[in-house]
Amino acid sequence: NLSPCRFYLHPELSNDLVGTHPPGAHSLVAVSVGYFLEDFVDMLCNQKLHQSWELLFHHSVVIVCFGIAVLLHQYVGFALVALLVEINSIFLHLRQILLMANLVHTTCYRLNSAVNLGTYVLFRMATLAWMARWLFLNRQSVPPAAYAVGTLGMAVMAPMNVILFFRLLRSDFCK
After folding, report:
1. How many alpha carbons lie under 13 Å from residue 24 in its C-beta half-sphere?
2. Is residue 8 assigned to a domain?
3. Which residues cross the membrane (predicted)?
4. Dmax over Cα atoms in the chain, in whole Å?
């Protein structure tokens, strides 16, 4: 996992998210590609397309971006930063479990909703904003094809995350 501690332990990450990564990072990103592929196939087989098209699209973008990092052994540091987003997934999944268990009117659900929204802002929105800023500031040192993929990835993820944020806000706090 990548935490602020990683930047302390591997300060070279602060300067080079393209060619530098800590030991085990490549394997972590590769395993993440496998997870996203498995989840993609599971959704295709077990959910209706109109229910899952946004997640399928999200997974497609992640698989392409992370796949490039794995195959080229480049941008692994950038992919590690992107994995911070998945910290929030814990609370999004717990929210779904609580909804399926019909526990919406419980303290546990309300607490999870607050933590979910907080981690959403911190780990999804702030991380993606930081990544977009990094990509923009480092555009001269990133090859045009990689810059295009990264920019497209950010252009897809940012609006999707803003829309989901407002859906969560409306669903859990504006009833």
Report:
1. 4
2. no
3. 53-72, 78-94, 114-133, 145-169
4. 51
- How far is CA 115 from each of CA 21, 90, 99, rounded to the nearest angstrom? 30, 10, 16
Range of the domain at 101: 24-174
CA distances from 137 to 147, 170, 173 (A): 11, 34, 36
C-alpha 9 chain-centroid distance: 23
What is residue 4's predicted lDDT score, i.e. its pLDDT? 57
In a domain, 4, yes or no: no
